[in-house]
Design goal:
single chain; 581 residues; alpha/beta; Immunoglobulin-like; TIM Barrel; eight-stranded parallel β-sheet; four-stranded antiparallel β-sheet; 12 helices; 23% helix; 30% strand
């Protein structure tokens, strides 16, 4: 058995048609081969025998009331066991086994009115893709145990993520990654491994090598139901156009034939079951346009000055305002496939890897373990939100808080803009070495503050506040569930000592798979004469249908936080410690 390809041909009216293509290698002429094919799950079993003709056979299963593969937030990621036994005159020659999912996936690029969209449609249902980018799990790939993959993907699921993007600057992941995404119900945006460079598509030998690589990858991965989209490269189309417009590149776009000719031709032959996208970002009058396709938002962190158009220079504004996470509110992208900012690794991770005597703010060794040269952009972000750290404790706390609040600000903005925006993938989930980076989980699998925030800002039902200092407060409900939601949203404002200064209830009825603004309030009304620097806002579901959500009305550095007063009581007879504020 050379390969087996299973795909869902049709899915409607509680019936699925699953096609199985079997490819064999026969080294002896004249042998008549048969394949016994079994497809089963916990409820059903289907069996067919088919003759192999010229090293190939095709058969279909008509399945009534199939158990569909869904992302974990919409249903169960049901899997079927596929078994192929190759025989000659009753003798078993070879066997093949795998897990498949019955599902359809496509990308809607225009809505019914013809407006641009970039919306994944799973089994006929439009979804909002919430997740993160996945980079290589370690700098020494061969030493990584499978348990590390399982743990990270489980963490992604627990953070209510439904998509991971395998970044094109990394590797085609090991089988365990895709198997776990299948089982955990997480979609995968799969880049081909071409990133941020020109590739010699004029060289015949090189192109033959690429052809073999692409064929091998497609055949290895095409049966995984988790894979939602193939993407030709990471940032090559965008960066070439930007650098060419700036006069920094004078060559042709070497590599273009790979992403725009070779890969799509091979996918049409080997895997027509899922969409292909030439590059990321891609689309519009600038490959990083807000208007069409997908986008990488590096206005925040890198300070890119956008929007721009083809032929224009890409400016940068490296300042407190230029890199601020509040710039996310300007982005009305169809799909944000990268956005993020740095945060320190956890104390354990840094102390374990810094030489003795170098664990302090300002050390060269600490700066060396930072993907941001001498903390330049991270300092600007912290200057705008928390203030500049004065010691290592403040650096760890301030950078994590800035990342957590910044990613919350961005993700909630994108989700409020649903369905015009239909996905947001944070850069990045994991880390490949112990240092400071964009990751939400550090090298030793210790989550940063942003990870814990993500459990709430990715929740299927989100009560969210749109607000910047001095502006009105807009209350929204984002419902990614398919069922309507009826509830009472309680809006409350507290002083830091716990005193309630304002409360208002809103009856809500929000349709499934929708985002709705339900009210607007002024700062003057909700503050009731209290300083904005001394209060916190809580959004609460009266019927406990959604997680509580908290907001400060000013940047952290401007808050007038009282010193915490803790009362500790030790009760040895109960073996308990009671702590009160």
């Amino acid at each position: 058995i050379e390969s087996v390809y299973a795909r869902t041909l049709d899915l409607k009216d509680s019936r699925a048609i699953v096609q199985i293509d079997i490819y064999t290698k026969n080294f002896v002429k004249g042998k008549s081969l048969q394949a016994e094919v079994t497809l089963k799950d916990r409820e059903q079993q289907f069996f067919q025998t088919v003759n192999i003709d010229q090293n190939r056979a095709t058969l279909t299963f008509n399945i009534d009331n199939p158990n569909l593969w869904w992302t974990h937030d919409l249903g169960e990621p049901n899997l079927y066991q596929l078994s192929v036994v190759l025989k000659w005159e009753g003798e078993v020659l070879d066997t093949y086994q795998t897990e498949i999912g019955i599902r359809t996936v496509e990308v809607m690029k225009r809505d019914r009115e013809g407006n641009p969209r970039f919306t994944f449609v799973l089994n006929g249902v439009e979804i909002f893709a919430k997740g993160a980018n996945w980079i290589p799990i370690d700098s020494f790939l061969g030493s990584v145990p499978e348990s590390r993959y399982r743990h990270l993907i489980q963490l992604a699921k627990e953070a209510n993520m439904n998509m991971l993007r395998v970044w094109g600057g990394g590797i085609y992941e090991k089988d365990i990654f895709y198997q776990e995404c299948n089982r955990q119900g997480i979609l995968v945006w799969q880049d081909f491994m071409f990133a941020c460079a020109l590739y010699p598509d004029y060289n015949r030998d090189y192109m033959e090598n690429v052809r073999e690589e692409v064929i091998s990858v497609i055949k290895r991965l095409r049966n995984h139901p988790c894979i939602a989209l193939w993407c030709g490269n990471n940032e090559n189309d965008w960066l070439y156009e930007v650098e060419h417009a700036a006069g920094k590149i004078h060559t042709p776009f070497y590599g273009e034939k790979i992403y725009h000719e070779l890969i799509p031709e091979l996918l049409e032959e080997l895997d027509p079951s899922r969409p292909y996208w030439p590059s990321s970002p891609y689309g519009g009058n600038d490959h990083n346009s807000q208007e069409e396709g997908d986008r990488h938002n590096w206005q925040v962190w890198h300070g890119n000055v956008e929007p721009r158009k083809f032929g224009q220079n890409l400016g940068q504004n490296i300042s407190v305002e230029g890199v601020s996470f509040r710039n996310y509110k300007k982005d009305r992208t169809r799909f944000c496939s990268e956005f993020g900012m740095h945060a320190s690794a956890n104390r354990y991770t840094l102390e374990k890897n810094l030489p003795d005597g170098t664990f302090y703010w300002g050390s060269d060794e600490l700066a060396y373990r930072n993907k941001d040269f001498h903390h330049e952009k991270g300092l600007l972000l912290m200057e705008g939100y928390t203030g500049i750290p004065k010691n290592i404790e403040e650096y760890m706390n301030y950078s994590m808080l800035t990342q957590a609040e910044g990613l919350k600000y961005g993700m909630e903005h994108y989700r409020r803009n649903k369905p015009q925006t239909s996905g947001a993938l944070i850069w990045q989930l994991n880390d490949c070495w112990p240092g400071t980076s964009w990751s939400m989980i550090d090298y030793y699998l210790l989550p940063k503050a942003s990870y814990y925030y993500s459990k709430k800002f990715n929740a299927p039902l989100l009560y969210t506040l749109e607000h910047d200092p001095g502006d009105d407060l807009h209350l929204w409900v984002v419902n990614d569930r398919l069922e309507d939601v009826k509830d009472t949203l309680v809006f409350e404002v507290f002083r830091f000592n716990g005193e309630l200064v304002y409360s208002k209830e809103f009856l809500i009825h929000v349709k499934g798979n929708a985002s709705v603004q339900i009210a607007s309030l002024t700062e003057a009304e909700v503050l009731q004469g209290n300083p904005a620097e001394q209060v916190v806002v809580r959004l609460k579901s009266l019927n406990k249908k959604a997680e509580e959500n908290y907001y400060y009305l000013r940047n952290h550095k401007d808050l007038q936080l009282p010193k915490a007063k803790l009362q500790v009581k030790v009760m040895p007879e109960k073996q308990e410690v009671e702590i009160r504020t």
